[in-house]
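Give me the fold.
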Amino acid sequence: MIPGLKLLTAFLLVGICSSLQAQKTIPAGMQPIKGGSFVPLYGGDTIPLEVNDFLLDQYPVTNSDYKAFIEANPQWKKSAVKKIFADAGYLRSWPSDVVTGPEEEKIANSPVTNVSWFAAKAYCECQGKRLPTVKEWEYAALASDKKANASGDAAFYQQSLDWYSQPNPKYLPPVNSSFRNYYGVYGMIGLVWEWTLDYNSSLLVGESRANSSLDRQLFCGAGASGAKDVENYVAFMRYAFRSSLKANYTVANLGFRCAKDVKTEKPIQ
């Protein structure tokens, strides 16, 4: 590589993320998700999707986590982020660039929200991770507290409906107080909606950029308890939300968590 180009490449990598670290073992705070197949809730497909083993954050990213990320990567401060990467609502619940004092104590362990896809992706990459894909998130969200696939469980489906019926509280609860599923992952139901890596994957089909019939799979919310009938309120809520966002959008009840590929010789048991 040309010396000048090599130096420029190194500089850009440092600028993008100053805390990237390689991991050879399962990182603390992540849970192994054994792969398999499932029929997705969205899109009307009936062919099962295959999901490989992967790792998923035990909790959504908290305000405290995100504060540490901003301190290490000041280009993502509320006052510094470029509008192409986040709209005017970015970190709206934070009174300033860094939350301190009593306000910080109230939200430190609550999921960070009003964060764009660009910001969420950058955060995960700085941890040596990535955002989960749509199918990974949906697959993990099928788990109730007692079984990996609770898609036919009416009580589990009702939990999702109950969440949709509740107004957003002023302060979201701590992540460790939320619903814990079969995998030991918290908050897949009843906490916040979450970004996925391939939010616009469905835009790869169709030829017209203005084709409004395309489903923009932007992010996933709670309750992937698959159903194909028109009475499935959860399905239509998820479908409607996904069709409305862009990568720089920020929403008061939209957060994220990170995932990671499994790089081991043996599959998850």
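The chain is about 25% helix and 10% strand.
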